[in-house]
Structures are given as C-alpha cells and as structure tokens.
Amino acid sequence: MIVQVRICTPPELSDLVVESCTQQTGAAEVAVHKGASIHPPGDVVVVHVAREAVEELLEKLHVLKIQELGSIAISMPELMLSRRADRAEAAAPGDGADAMIWDEVTRQTGEDSRLTWSYLAFLVLATQLAAIGIVTNSTIAIVGAMAVGPEFGPLAALAVAIAQRKWKLGRSAALALGVGFPVAMLLAALTAWLSVPLGLFPADTLDTGSAVEFIYHPGPYSLIVAVLAGAAGMLSVISRRSAALIGVFISVTTVPAAGFVAVALVLGEYQKAAGSALQLLLNLVGIVVSALAVLIFYRLITKRLPDGMARRLRRQALRARS
User: Fold this and answer.
1) Which of 73, 157, 168, 239 is most buried by a 10 A CB count?
2) Nearest to 255 by CA among 237, 234, 276
C-alpha cells in the first residue's frame, strides 16, 4: 500500500526535507520541483512511501515545522506499478493495513464531529425512524435508524481528543453530542405527542412491543456490545474500511435508545424511559472507552521518532533558517 506525500517547503528547508524523505525506510521515489510553489514561494517535494512508514516521515516533517511554514498533502494512488515500490513496502516494518496515521485519524474524526446542519438533520431523521420503529414494533425501522445515525463520529473524536490531548477537538465533539441528542429527542417527543391524539398509535403501544424490549432492558451485554462496537469502529477508521463502520452503526442502540426515551416520556412510561436512558449512557461510555483503548494500543506499538533524531533535525532546521 503506497501513499503519495506532497510537501510544499521553504527553499531553505528543501535539502533537509529531501534528506529526510530519501533516508526514510519504505520510501520508493522522491521527486523535487525547485521553485514550483508560487504562493507561498518554495519548492515542492513529492515522495511515494509505504503506508506503514508514513507516520515516522510525518513526525520528521512536524519537527521541521513544515505544516506551519508550508503544507503536507497525503493521497492514495489508485494503482502503482513499480518494482521499487514493491521493495519499499517489503523493507518497511509492519503491514500497511495495520498502519496508523495519527494526522489522518485526527482530521477525519474532527470533520465528522462538528455540529453542522447535516449532522443535526441525520441525527433527527435517525431518531424519528427509531421512534416510528418503536411505536410500530418494527425492528427493520430501528435497524435503519441505527444505520443512519451519525453519532459515532463525535464519539470517535472524543477518544482521539483524550488520546492526543486535543481539547479543542474534544469540545467540538462534546458540543455535537450535547446539542444533537437533546434536539433530536425533543423533536421525537413532539412528534409522538402530536401523533397520540391523531390516533396514529395507541397510548399502550409500549406494553405490546416485544420486538423493542432490548432497548429499555440494559444488561451486561449492552456494555459488551458497545465496547466491541467501539473497538471495531475505531479500527475501521484507522484502516479506512467504511463497510465495517456501517456494521458498527447497526450494532449499537444509541439512536434507538434516544428515540425510546422520547416516546416513553410522552406516554408516561417513566421506568422504561429510565431504562432506555441507561442503555444510551452505557453505549456512549462503552464506545468512547473502547475506542480510546484501541488508540492507546496503537500508540504503544507504533514506532516513534527517536529523541536524538528529533533534536538533530531541530538544530539543522534552526541553522538552515538562520
């Protein structure tokens, strides 16, 4: 799995960047375009490197502060035919499918955790679907609500924020959850309140809905499923496997639990509302804790840039800029 890294660097740091790229284990090709960058003025370096070596290369570039003085762009070629690339992948330690690029995960979860109109719309629609599935005793509608719900993004962002100590990201994720769920539940409660006098469903509908009992009966397996789903979800984000992430959405009952709380409160079923609220809390906490555990594990097994190399690069960068 080869990754293309495009680096826009000031001219005075160009030689250091090229040296860092060419000496990087797993680098297949390095190309330098002198003066190719007009704004800001500088050179452009393009390197093809095995995915498992990208994180170490990015650490070197961060030490040189390239992300502040220029830019770093990462893309994945659809197809690359190169004997040199094959040798570079073989030389790089580990496997590309297991490699983690921290900047990539942070950026992806950050984009998915913002409180936007589209995020609110998806969460409201998912909660409405869940409420309909609850009052009609339809597991199909509830599964559809699980698939539509966007809540895993902010939960994953919370785990990344704790692991990376990026508190701004954590605040953004907490805001998305803290505003999104109450708004979605309030609108679901309003819909249920309007539906009862219209005769769309009977007031005792929660007493006959055997297919949705799992939502307000939290137990040990509720937490176990949430922990497994959180770990699988974070692994799918790290490995860029969106199909696996959809499976995670369908396995957790966060959105159905929120919809059940809204409907149960409207119908005066306070004990069932409390049970589904506990189900919601267990799912949220379990997902964040297990996702954080996956990140900590990857931090422990990921090869870090040696302190001596980082200090040497800083000294060379200072001399180059002066």
Assistant:
1) 157
2) 276
| 3-state DSSP percent of the chain in helix, strand and coil, to 5 | 70, 10, 20
In 3D space, the residue among 116, 119, 17 whose CA is nearest the CA of residue 70 turns out to be 17
**pLDDT for the residue numbered 240:** 75
Pairing state between β 42-50 and 2-9: antiparallel
So what's the pLDDT on residue 142?
Answer: 87
CA end-to-end distance (rounded Å), the chain: 38
Which phi and psi (to 5°) does residue 100 adopt? Answer: -115, 130
For residue 247, pLDDT beyond 70 = no
Residue 231 CA: distances (Å) to CA of 158, 226, 248: 14, 9, 9
Question: What is the average per-residue pLDDT within 295-315?
Answer: 82
Q: 2 forms bridges with which residues in the sheet?
A: 50
> Bridge-partner residues for 72, per DSSP?
7
Instruction: Spell out the SS3 assignment of 158-213.
Output: HHHHHHHCCHHHHHHHHHHHHHHHHHHHHHHHHHHHHHCCCCCCCCCHHHHCHHHH
Asked whether 266 and 134 are in contact (CB, 8 A), the reply is: no
Whether residue 192 contacts residue 263, with contact meaning beta carbons closer than 8 Å, is answered with yes
Q: What single-letter DSSP state applies at residue 97?
A: G
Is residue 244 very low, low, confident or very high in pLDDT (cuts 50, 70, 90)? low
Query: Can you read off the two tokens belonging to residue 120?
Result: 């609110």
Q: What is the pLDDT of residues 48-77, one digit of tens each?
A: 999 888 988 999 999 999 999 999 999 988
CA dihedral 51, 53, 56, 59 (to 10 degrees): -40
Nearest-5° angle of CA 142, CA 147, CA 153? 125
Residue 78 has a pLDDT of 85
pLDDT at 284: 92
Report pTM: 0.84
d(CA 139, CA 212): 7
